TrEMBL record:
Residues 260-561 form the Bacterial surface antigen (D15) domain. Keywords: Cell outer membrane, Membrane, Signal, Transmembrane, Transmembrane beta strand. InterPro entries: Bac_surfAg_D15, BamA/TamA_POTRA, D15-like, TamA_POTRA_Dom_1. It is found in: Cell outer membrane. Pfam families: Omp85, POTRA, POTRA_TamA_1. This is Translocation and assembly module subunit TamA. Residues 20-90 form the TamA POTRA domain. Residues 181-244 form the POTRA domain. Belongs to the TamA family. Transmembrane segments: none annotated. Interacts with TamB to form the translocation and assembly module (TAM). One of its GO terms (biological process) is protein secretion.
Amino acid sequence: MLAAILSVSSPARSDTTYQFKISGVDGALRDNIDIYLQKYTDADHTPGLRFQTTLQQEIQTALQALGYYHSEISITHDKATPRLLQINVQAGEPVRISESDIQLSGDATTDSDFAALLATQAPKQGQVLHHGAYDGFKSALKSLALRKGYFDADFTQARLEVAPELKQAFVRLHFNSGTRYKFGDVSFSGNQIAEPGLRSLVPFNHGDHYLASQLGEFNQALAATGWFSSILVEGDTTQMQDFTLPINVALQPERRNIIETGIGYSTDVKTRLKLNWNKPWLNKAGHSLSSKLALSEIEQSVEAAYKLPLASVANDFYQVQLGFKNRDNQDTQSRESNLALERHWLLKSDWYRTASVRWLYEDFVQADQNDSISLIMPGLSYNRTKQSGGPMPSSANRILLGVEVSDEAWGSDASFVRLRSRLGWIGSAGNNHRFVTRLDGGAILMEGLSQLPPSLRFFAGGDNSIRGYGYETVSPRNSDDELTGGRYMATAALEYQYRVKGNWWLAAFSDYGSAWDDKPDWVQGVGFGVRWASPVGPVRLDLAWGLDGPDNGFQLHFALGPEL
């Protein structure tokens, strides 16, 4: 019955819907005609001479919008198919701009952004007239003026004259920007945080020239603090004096307590349950407290961090961290306690610099070693991440460099230097091709591992390491074939992704690396996978094969989160 209905209804629709076959023009002219004729494809119009005249007028309007005023249009059809129309268009000679009189006055005459706009978008003598480009240039002038604080800007003359019989057009645009306004005083209302800290977030000074982008930057800086549930930054146009614009900031405090729960899964740690309890602000100075509880089959941890912003609250702060972790994985059993004092800077170069002092106590069994170790480790790290293109970025790069030092001279049980680095890059070729590369490395400068806890040793293998091998199974082994961890580690990953449809991608990859003490035993994993660009980040499912070593074979990897 369904097949019969479809076979009857399909021809009926084609008989009541107009179809246009256009010849004689292509490119922008053809596209514009298609746009103008879209509204005439339904069955609300009766075939005949009157309808053809209407179509001719619409086509002429579409062509005139692009400067073609001397077109010849013929429309024919077969009596057997009256709704299939053959349209032949001869565009003729276009109208060109004979005179372009564009004048700029006011403070904008010395503004480089206006000079660039005039150089790239202004209608020029000899160009084919394009009404859309003309209107777009006018809008661009007004828009640029508003973004840069020329609030009194207006056209003193705006005329476009067309002489079709002469195939000439005359553009006269005189734009007076007036005086450029400056930022005035910034006032806050509804804030629970002391004003000195908030004023450190203001990216401009009183008397600086107005820029709308700096208001957006200010809004983002306020949002990044996590102190407020509502933020409104706007200019007070009712109080403008002497070409200055006061800025009003209306704020509403964030809740004192925020609790988040979550569940996730990866093949490395299996099912993981999370509970986060955050107190975004504790006092007028903007101190905050965050705590995290994470439970999985192989690892259980609880962490708390107390953050103390400094004078520049967006860029500089102290943080005290306390954490406990229990771990039982492969040949590792450990219970560790961490207490760290950190000083954070956001540098002008977009690098995050962190200086820290960490106390680590770890009671562990690693292979055939049963021990407990106490370490005091000053450290320094640099981290920078850039990306664009949403949760599954089209381009991104990440660099992490860090060092921690321990010495028996200040009470540690061991002396060593631990170096850590991670580099990542994502690039795209068009909309359907992505490339992901990662380099991961580490080194411990000391004579042996006997005085080093498992949390500081190096292991490789797993979702974000060498796929095709189990989580942290690439490692030196003792005589009983138990994993001992290594002093050195180096891994590399190269991945190509192809968009199949929408947010779905296919991936092919090859990973290579090792963790070792004296001499690396390199292993390689290869495979393919599926990627879904979810709203919270890439979801990755990989089928991988290890090609070397005692644990080579098939591995299924599943992960959710950033790729670098």
